[in-house]
Amino acid sequence: FADKYLQDQHWVITAGPTREAIDPVRYISNYSSGKMGYAIAHAALRAGAKVTLISGPVNISAPRGCELIEVTSAEQMYQQALTYAPQGTTFIACAAVADYRVADIAKEKIKKDNEHMQLSLVKNQDIVADVAKLANKPFIVGFAAETQNIAHYARGKLKRKNLDLIAANDVAKAGQGFNSDDNALTLYSAFDEIEIPLANKQVIATKLVSLINQHYLAKSTK
Length: 222
Ligand code: PMT
What we know:
Elements: E1 10-15, E2 20-23, E3 26-28, H1 35-46, E4 50-55, E5 67-70, H2 74-84, E6 90-93, E7 100-102, E8 121-123, H3 127-131, E9 139-146, H4 150-160, E10 165-170, E11 182-188, E12 193-200, H5 201-220
Parallel strand pairs: 1-4, 1-6, 4-5, 6-9, 9-10
Antiparallel strand pairs: 2-3, 7-8, 10-11, 11-12
The protein binds ligand PMT.
Cofactor: Mg(2+); FMN
EC number: 4.1.1.36, 6.3.2.5
Family: In the C-terminal section; belongs to the PPC synthetase family. In the N-terminal section; belongs to the HFCD (homo-oligomeric flavin containing Cys decarboxylase) superfamily.
């Protein structure tokens, strides 16, 4: 089955935002809708892969046939990703993980008694970078959401986090990136750079999945 070219692969994909609690009724998050990660899950399933989708809170349904692991915070996503990633052939970090969490989550709802208030934040662990430190690590693809100097920052993340590939998107442009139906990506490896022009995220995902597989096969036959 040429169309089932991922038949022997298991893809573990993170998607959506994370939520970092401030108090029982408030949180810090971002505009990720999960659409890009879910589209990749869908495309990988169609190509015959087994798919584990580790997802932050989103308003879309998971594609039929995937194993869905629902999480809320970056710490929860970290635990699940480090558990499932070693079982996979391929790990895709499409989630928009909060870089920081609140140092002390208030047990009760914070009252608006003061004119100014400050939140103290601490850095979250980097999920994809730590997956890349595993002895039995899969093939690893990160994303880079940038608003400027895209190629420079994306290549920096590729190297620093020790990834096989990084898919960079310009999230300053209207109509693509966070929460839109469309996207445009540049896929960087240590050796090449491939443009995937603006299109619906389903179309982007289909192309991206095939390109990732080509790089995966090239690496495993080296
Ligand atoms: O969900 P959508 O609305 O469809 O939007 C898609 C998207 C814009 C969120 C997606 O295409 C995207 O770019 N995802 C990555 C967003 C991001 O947080 O990028 P970053 O440049 O901050 O992070 C770089 C990489 O490190 C990413 O692979 C990220 O998943 C990973 N990371 C970051 C922080 C952290 N603590 N752990 C991580 O694994």
